[in-house]
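Most newcomers find our protein records easier to grasp once they have seen one. To make this concrete, we reproduce a full record directly below:

===
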Amino acid sequence: MTKKRAVLLLQMGGPDSMDAVEPFLLNLFSDREIIKIGPAWLQPVIARFIVKRRARHVEENYRLIGGRSPLRKLTEEQAANLEKELGNDYRCFVAMRYWHPTTIEALAEIKKSVISDITAVSLYPHYSKATTGSSIKELKRVLAEAKVSFTVRYIDSFHNNPLYIEALQDRIREGLNQFHPLADVELLFSAHSLPVSFIEEGDPYLEQIQESVKQVMKSFDVPYHLSFQSKAGPVKWLEPSTDEMLKSLAESGTKNILVVPLSFVSDHIETLHEIDIEYAKKAWELGIARFERVPSLNSSPKFIRCLADLVRKSDG
């Protein structure tokens, strides 16, 4: 009988209740892979100070999208669909970097299932040490401490996988169909921002983002733009920011915008609140007539096929 293999989906995670917002933020701001605040020994103290100041505002944002992040539910749905796509030889698990189920909890489930062969798949399409790098580093740390013998393969990006590109193109076609056939629509790819210093140190994130946009646009003949959202802190971040881009487009007379959340494969606070509420309000204030967003890939059948394709190729 063939031994089962595990697929471990690595994702950021999000608070599953209002009470979880503050500890989730503390986990996030304590991670020096994503943000360095002062010397390492002082970061936990500074992180607590920042979280205390931000928690109420972030809690209100989560309240406006239902009081919790949908990220765990959506990722578990992706895992369930992927398991069906891969067939009986595989079991799929989920590990969240900053909330539950944690990496330790996920590995415990894999061990309990008597599986020792793991393919770890980062659900960040574009590699950055702040996202994929941090999740893989945490997985390796836990594996080393657990002293359990697992065989582990890593899939750390899929920015140019044909099925990923096609899944994005399908979403965009669906989005464009919401507009009148004669409407002049412009696409706005909005990716999570990153400190410029990361790129200067060799992080391939920006190059991979640009390559994804280039591949996606081979199927469309409409104006398009790339901007970056969700920056935090006083350091220099990738530009232009999405809010600056909206202002620029409005000033140039753009009236119809379709936003494509490029670096997110599941809807969460940065699509449901930052884009759908904050940027939509700004667009209205700027005089943009219609502002729409394509859904994240979530459990798009083509995206699930993309993940299955990555796993099968990795497993040989």
In short: The longest strand covers residues 185-192. The radius of gyration is 20 Å.
